[in-house]
Amino acid sequence: MRSKHRKLFDAGAIASALVALAIAGAAHAADVKSQGSLKLPPNTDLIVICNDPMVNNVLSDDLNAERRTLGTITSTLTLTVEVNQKVMAPGVSLGDLFPGDPSMARLLAETGVNAPPLGDSGDQRGDPYAEAARRQALGLDDPLTSSFRNYQAMENSMKGDSGSPYNSIPKSQIYDTVISARAAISGASGEFKVVAVVHGGDSINKGKKLVAEEIANSILR
């Protein structure tokens, strides 16, 4: 008869293996939706001010490349970008995802992800099997990722959170991460909003780069 410690070890080993397979097999790119526009006056340079270093660097690089085609610079304006990043783990509210602008939930819905409640939803976990069925119906998971999520649901239902090997797994490897950004140019009309959903196990940095490029394209097109 195997000991309890051996069983926990086996569960942890299986969990680790499934995480590795799910991450290696993940084929999803971040889902990105946006609205609005940013109009840059002719021969105008932009200084980027952003609270996220990754988005700031990508935007600055893209705009610096465009600067070489501007010719004579007659004015300089400021591009302000506010970025928010949150893992959609149980207990996350709409206010956590989009602080100050819950209307951005519409962009989240366009990616196929259901928005959480507006207020604090507490830490009560939803039905993991219902969530797995929803993701499968929407085609959000490949087979390896789906297997990992099903294993997670089984473990949580049998043992609860206490002693579960999933406690050591980063939440961003299991749940979707929502990256939102609002951009505006000083002295110019218009505002640009973008939401990216990075699926569990995929690259957060890749999602941020896509957000930055979406903003840059809005300015440069």
Polypeptide structure, described:
The protein has one domain. The N terminus is likely disordered. The termini are far apart. It has seven helices and five strands, in the order αββαβααααββα. It is α+β, with helices and mostly antiparallel strands. A five-stranded mixed sheet has the order 1-5-4-3-2. Helix content is 42%, strand content 19%.
Radius of gyration: 21 Å
Number of domains: 1
Strand-residue proportion: 15-25%
Query: Mean pLDDT across all residues, rounded?
Result: 76
Helix content: 40-55%
Shape: elongated
Spans where pLDDT lies below 50 across 5 or more residues? 1-27
| Content-based structural category | alpha+beta
Number of distinct beta strands: 5
Helix count, per DSSP?
A: 7
**How far is it from the N-terminal to the C-terminal residue, by CA?**
68 Å
Task: Give the spatial strand order of the biggest sheet.
Answer: 1-5-4-3-2
Order of helices and strands: HEEHEHHHHEEH
Topology (SSEs and partners):
Blueprint lengths: L3 H22 L5 E6 L7 E7 L2 H15 L7 E13 L6 H4 L7 H6 L17 H11 L4 H17 L17 E9 L6 E7 L5 H17 L1
Parallel strand pairs: 2-3
Antiparallel strand pairs: 1-5, 3-4, 4-5
